[in-house]
């Protein structure tokens, strides 16, 4: 899978820019503020329908303009997808896939997958449980549509149940109303737990495969406590927590409360990891994401690397580059990789550009926004 062309209009600091990409490594280099990360952000938006940097789309519109427009061409074998995304300050977002307006960005997810490695995502290892749930749920949604559908349904039911709890506390309804939501929640929650456990086991296998290929001996494990409740058992647990839920005003039991603990060399990374350990662990999690998606879908996702080689020392950079080459050898084809950097010399010293038949570079300057 690859992207061949990208067009940006009034997106971030880009007024009108067109880029093309090779199937090997494409590098965007320049000073901070020149719009390098915005290019990755645009590709991410065309892949899953939203930015990885903000939920407020109006902030993506170039200052002084009313809308942004993104267009991209994605290739997978002989298949070609034309994706366009527009956000207007008045009418909101519209997305087209091959010229057809799609009602929900869900229809994009999994079609043209990307794996993003950016400092913006360090909360996966450093932040609270919600960041790890979001990361793993995104991976599993890309590879399994029924999981995506059930996760969205579960979220809607949680909102309705919580709203019912609020009405009970306000004296506007009685306990009977909560029973219908409990039944629906028991079905969707039990399903999510069952599938999440299966998918977590598969993700850990992908992660361990990478670690075995790594030159430096490292131990990274994602720990997830499997819940094996069927809908009946789930319903019973909901009843046990119902009084507590009403007292504090929200649902406290279910997959939306899960955590996936990341352990580095036998210790909980969030509580005891150094800055370097957090950075390196994030790299392995994201590469494991790419391996997992390839194994589940048969398609290689596009790798988006945001200033990766400025974050680690040269020897570890070379070690990671070796992993990239191992992945390409295993898949018998280069993975399209799009990199941003402020330092081309550091990138070249890492060896990332070696061994690729195709390398393309784009130099961006701050004045490109005018």
Shape: globular
| N- to C-terminal distance | 33 Å
Helical segment count: 10
Strand order of the largest sheet: 2-1-4-5-6-7
User: Helix and strand succession?
Assistant: EEEHEEEEEHHHHEHEEHHEHEHE
Mean pLDDT: 91
Largest beta sheet, briefly?
A: 6 strands, antiparallel
Q: Give me the count of strands.
A: 14
Gyration radius over CA: 22 Å
Give the helix/strand class.
alpha/beta
Percent of residues in helical segments? 40-55%
The low-confidence parts are none
User: Could you tell me the strand content as a percent range?
Assistant: 15-25%
Layout of secondary structure:
Elements: E1 2-11, E2 14-20, E3 25-29, H1 36-48, E4 67-76, E5 79-88, E6 92-97, E7 100-102, E8 114-117, H2 123-126, H3 129-143, H4 145-169, H5 176-213, E9 220-223, H6 231-248, E10 261-264, E11 267-268, H7 269-272, H8 275-297, E12 302-306, H9 314-331, E13 337-341, H10 344-350, E14 359-363
Parallel strand pairs: 3-13, 3-14, 8-12, 12-13
Antiparallel strand pairs: 1-2, 1-4, 4-5, 5-6, 6-7, 9-10, 10-11
Helix pairs in contact: 3-4, 4-5, 5-6, 5-8
Write out key terms for the chains shown.
370 residues; 6-stranded antiparallel β-sheet; 5-stranded parallel β-sheet; single chain; alpha/beta
Gist?
This protein has a six-stranded antiparallel β-sheet with strand order 2-1-4-5-6-7, covered by helices on one side. The chain has a five-stranded parallel β-sheet with strand order 8-12-13-3-14, with helices on both faces.
Structure overview:
The protein is an alpha/beta fold and 370 residues long. The chain has helices spanning 36-48, 123-126, 129-143, 145-169, 176-213, 231-248, 269-272, 275-297, 314-331, 344-350, and strands at residues 2-11, 14-20, 25-29, 67-76, 79-88, 92-97, 100-102, 114-117, 220-223, 261-264, 267-268, 302-306, 337-341, 359-363. 45% of the residues lie in helices and 22% in strands. The protein has a six-stranded antiparallel sheet, covered by helices on one side. The chain starts with a strand and ends in a 7-residue tail after the last strand. It has ten helices and 14 strands. It is globular, with a radius of gyration of 22 Å. The longest helix has 38 residues, at 176-213.
């Amino acid at each position: 899978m690859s992207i061949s062309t990208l067009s940006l209009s009034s997106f971030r600091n880009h007024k009108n820019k067109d880029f093309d990409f090779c199937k090997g490594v494409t590098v965007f280099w320049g000073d901070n503020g020149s719009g390098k990360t915005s290019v990755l952000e645009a590709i991410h938006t065309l892949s899953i329908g939203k930015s990885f940097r903000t939920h407020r789309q109006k902030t993506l519109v170039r200052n002084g303009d009313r809308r942004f427009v993104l267009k991209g061409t994605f290739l997978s074998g002989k298949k070609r997808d034309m994706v366009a995304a527009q956000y207007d300050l008045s009418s909101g977002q519209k997305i087209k896939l091959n010229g057809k307006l799609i009602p929900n960005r869900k229809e994009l997810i999994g079609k043209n997958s990307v794996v993003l490695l950016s400092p913006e995502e360090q909360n996966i290892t450093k932040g609270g449980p919600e960041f790890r749930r979001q990361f793993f749920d995104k991976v599993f949604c890309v590879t399994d549509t029924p999981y995506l559908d059930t996760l969205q349904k579960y979220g809607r039911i949680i909102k309705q149940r919580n709203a019912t709890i609020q009405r009970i506390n306000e004296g506007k309804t009685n306990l009977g109303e909560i029973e219908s939501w409990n039944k629906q929640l028991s079905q969707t929650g039990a399903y999510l737990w069952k599938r999440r456990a299966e998918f977590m086991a598969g993700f850990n296998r992908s992660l361990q495969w990478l670690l075995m290929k790594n030159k430096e001996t490292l131990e990274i494990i994602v720990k997830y406590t499997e819940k094996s409740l069927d809908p009946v058992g789930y319903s019973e647990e909901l009843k046990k927590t119902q009084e507590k839920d009403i007292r504090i005003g929200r649902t406290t039991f279910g997959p939306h409360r899960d955590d996936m603990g990341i352990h580095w060399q036998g210790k909980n990374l969030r509580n005891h990891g150094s800055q370097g350990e957090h950075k390196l662990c994030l790299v392995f999690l994201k590469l494991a994401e790419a391996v997992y998606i390839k194994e589940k879908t048969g398609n290689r996702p596009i790798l988006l690397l945001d200033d990766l080689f400025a974050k680690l020392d040269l020897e570890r950079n070379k070690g990671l580059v070796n992993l990239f080459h191992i992945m390409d050898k295993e898949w018998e084809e280069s993975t399209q990789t799009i990199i941003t950097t402020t330092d081309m010399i550091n990138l070249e010293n890492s060896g990332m550009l070696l061994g690729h038949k195709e390398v393309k570079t784009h130099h961006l300057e701050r004045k490109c926004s005018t």
